[in-house]
Design goal:
- The protein is an alpha/beta fold.
- It contains 14 helices and eight strands.
- The strands form two sheets. Strands 1, 4, 5, 6, 7 and 8 form a six-stranded mixed beta sheet that branches.
Length: 358
């Protein structure tokens, strides 16, 4: 028997978003971990806002909205706010009722600026890492470090001489690069001056980029520290040493890395930080900075194998987290969102490891 195609709507709805979300939905443990971390940051948020004036969007909802943006690869705040309006799952994750008004996308972006100008993302990542530590998911002895290029939100056509004539007015002007040398010390992007022209290796295209760095613990592949810097030839080693220095504790640790980290200065710096460099040996054009005293141990081979897992993290951050090409301009903003996206990756990884079940 054919059913009737009648459009009937109830005058009143007595259900909450909680009713529509299955008990085993994969977003439930992520919300539980995020809510716990945000509750611990309540005093930090309180200090960021005035006690008088018009109430803003709660910072907890702002951060959770940006987590949704990373988890579901939503490319703009406009689309995020649009989906919050009609997506019951998103309303449940944010703690919004079915009939509660949703903010305008411009209001969301304006309030987001306050968070980006703070260290909220770094503190949120630290709280997530602390939860992983209490769940005994972290190694406190073995780590890996690496860097990846994040393409800037700027065209190569915007890379103009610093002291040269101003570019012609208009959109998408023709530009001839034949025979011209483009260097960071003489040129800068008019769109994003903090980006740098850089290429990852020989034969690869040079792009205006930033460099993202991550320090991964080797037990379960969780990110314990992350940051973004200018893209330079030494940025990976400099940021790597800074992140290793931030590792808590006094026991000796190992740090895995690729051939780019096989330099005398980096290995010496790690030794000063009570760390052993388990880096891949670079014997192409010079002698390696490490020798048999390091490579003869079985742990060295294990570190070289596990360190490659950090590429999985970068792959998630770039594809799912939507950071292959950043939407933000300037090191500070790109660093903030990279750190939050690393926290989102940790939440997914910890969910898969069964940290939270409610």
């Amino acid at each position: 028997m054919r059913g009737n195609d009648n459009n009937t709507e109830a005058l009143f709805v007595y259900l909450s978003p909680e009713t529509f979300v299955p008990k085993n939905h994969p977003l439930r443990p992520i919300r539980a971990m995020a809510d716990k971390a945000l509750a611990e940051l309540s005093n930090e948020f309180e200090a960021m806002y005035s006690h008088t004036g018009r109430p803003s969007i709660p910072p907890e909802k702002l951060l959770k909205g940006l987590l949704l943006q990373a988890l579901y690869t939503i490319r703009s705040n406009r689309l995020l706010v649009e989906q919050i309006g009609y997506n019951v799952l998103f309303r449940w994750f944010l703690g919004l009722a079915l009939d509660e008004d949703v903010w305008d996308h411009s209001t969301f972006s304006t309030n987001q600026e306050r968070l980006i100008n703070s260290d909220a993302a770094q503190k949120f990542l630290a709280k997530i890492v602390e939860q992983a530590r209490k769940a005994k998911l972290l190694s406190d002895e073995h780590f890996s470090v690496d860097g990846t290029l994040i393409e800037a939100w700027a065209s190569i056509k915007s890379f103009q001489p610093k002291d040269g004539p101003k570019p012609p007015v208009g959109r998408n002007q023709e530009k001839d690069f034949h025979g011209k040398k483009l260097k960071n010390d003489t040129h800068a992007s008019s769109t994003d001056p903090e980006s740098r022209l850089f290429k990852k290796g020989a034969g690869k295209e040079a792009k205006l980029s930033y460099m993202g760095h991550a320090l991964m613990e080797n037990r379960n592949g969780l990110i314990v520290s992350g940051r973004v810097t200018h893209a330079t030839g030494t940025a990976e080693r400099e940021a790597g040493a800074e992140m290793v220095a931030s590792v808590p504790g006094t026991k000796r640790i190992t740090v895995g890395g690729d051939k780019n980290y096989d330099t005398k200065d980096f290995v010496k710096t790690l030794r000063g930080l009570n760390a052993t460099a388990h880096v891949a040996q670079n014997n192409t054009n010079r002698s390696s900075a490490i020798d048999g005293r390091t490579t003869r141990h079985e742990g060295y081979k294990v570190s070289l194998k596990i360190r490659k897992r950090i590429e999985e993290t970068f792959g998630w951050i770039k594809t799912i987290g939507n950071l292959r090409k950043t939407r933000y301009r300037g090191v500070e903003k790109v660093d903030w969102y990279f750190t939050l996206t690393a926290a989102a990756y940790n939440l997914v990884r910890m969910r898969n490891l069964g940290v939270a079940t409610t």
